């Protein structure tokens, strides 16, 4: 629950605020819950104005910025502040149309940036448990395909769109239809990433072996002429969709005994995190992931630091806390 310790108590709303609330209730036909939220936003604003000893309609951008900072300091989330500012902005836009204020003091005031959450990555043991899992009771065709997909996602750090966009080999339509392909002889995947940027990523031995096993049975028992050039296909020969990959990967994780929710991007994050832990080469990880900016890749250094900090906490005599 967000703290509001430093936020002032709400006084009675002045007439302009009440007129605005009546306007939005009648004109916009707001749901009762939404109207209540508008009211709470204006009560909060009136409380801040009273504490600052400023009339509501005399507030300036500096006041609004200070109020936003106070809410942030009180523990309110960036999203919560943004919603409150939106409510205030609507009130002052109406007040300006009514000629009650010369300008909107909330215009241009933005909420603090929300911290970027760390990407979720599996531990090395969990990742290996997933890709090494063999379901002896599964359909061999599905098991071979799903094993190859898991190996390629974790071993090469592909996005799910890049995975389903791969063809078995380059053909006359590969470039025209903006697809990638696999070159098993060279151990490479030619990938079409974001912004239609092509890159080449290595395919490890485990993934190469899994792909050979899959390609050996891929065409069976699909009817002749129904088979697409796609590397990963469904039972009817059509290119597999990203949604299907999500479903199959989630099922494979459950079968492997993982309690963590696993989806394709988790394996991409795991690829990047584990590679960075081992090599420390941020530029190489950037190239392999296809990030346009190194800043995007740097978030994995935070994951790497967490890993190192945990290792220190667990192993160093001076880090052990008294029980």
TrEMBL record:
The active site is at residues 159, 194, 265, 268, 291, 300. The keyword Mitochondrion does not apply. CDD domains: INT_XerDC_C. Keywords: Cell cycle, Cell division, Chromosome partition, Cytoplasm, DNA integration, DNA recombination, DNA-binding. One of its GO terms (cellular component) is cytoplasm. It comes from the Bacteria. HAMAP family: Recomb_XerC_XerD. Forms a cyclic heterotetrameric complex composed of two molecules of XerC and two molecules of XerD. This is Tyrosine recombinase XerC. The gene is xerC.
